Amino acid sequence: MLHQRHYTAAQANALLPEVRATVRRLQEAKRVLQDEGFDTGFATLADAVGGAYPGRERAYAAVAATLGFEHLEELDLLVRDLEAGLIDFPALREGREVYLSWQVDEQEVAHWHTAETGFPSRFPLDPWS
């Protein structure tokens, strides 16, 4: 198995307010970093010497991005497409690892797909749920 944690639809849905807020913060951080012209030199300098100050807004966005991705990683969630807000929750179906597929504007987790496929091949959870 690829993942240590697996979610039921109910468990994934219970996490949605937290995950939705994290995805929205990540999307905003990405927008700020792109609008402000994030450069890899800044990231390299920060890693190499322990810091570089790019300005308050960019620094806040960089920290928000790091913390957001770390949080989703701690939950063992996969960010498939940040711009679209597409997140996968590892799950088990008939002993196989699959993904519960959710997009940030969806009210609940209502689709799944196999590990070999993705968003275009989603199936509805009903009658599986």
- Average pLDDT, rounded to a whole number, is 86
The beta-strand count equals: 5
Number of domains: 1
Share of residues in helices: 40-55%
Number of discrete helical segments: 3
Bin the strand percentage: 15-25%
Low-confidence regions: none
**Largest sheet at a glance?**
5 strands, antiparallel
Give the overall form: elongated
Supply Rg.
17 Å
Order of SSEs: HHHEEEEE
What class do helices, strands and sheet pairing give?
alpha+beta
Order of adjacent strands in the largest pleated sheet? 1-2-3-4-5
N- and C-termini, Cα separation: 21 Å
Would you write up a description of this structure?
It is a single chain. The chain has three helices and five strands, in the order αααβββββ. The model has no long low-confidence stretch (mean pLDDT about 85). The longest helix is centred in the first third of the chain and has 27 residues, at about 10-35. The protein has a five-stranded antiparallel β-sheet with strand order 1-2-3-4-5. The chain has about 130 residues and is α+β, with helices and mostly antiparallel strands.
What secondary-structure arrangement, pairings included, does this model have?
Blueprint: H1 9-35, H2 40-49, H3 56-74, E1 78-81, E2 86-93, E3 96-103, E4 111-114, E5 123-124
Antiparallel strand pairs: 1-2, 2-3, 3-4, 4-5
Helix pairs in contact: 1-3
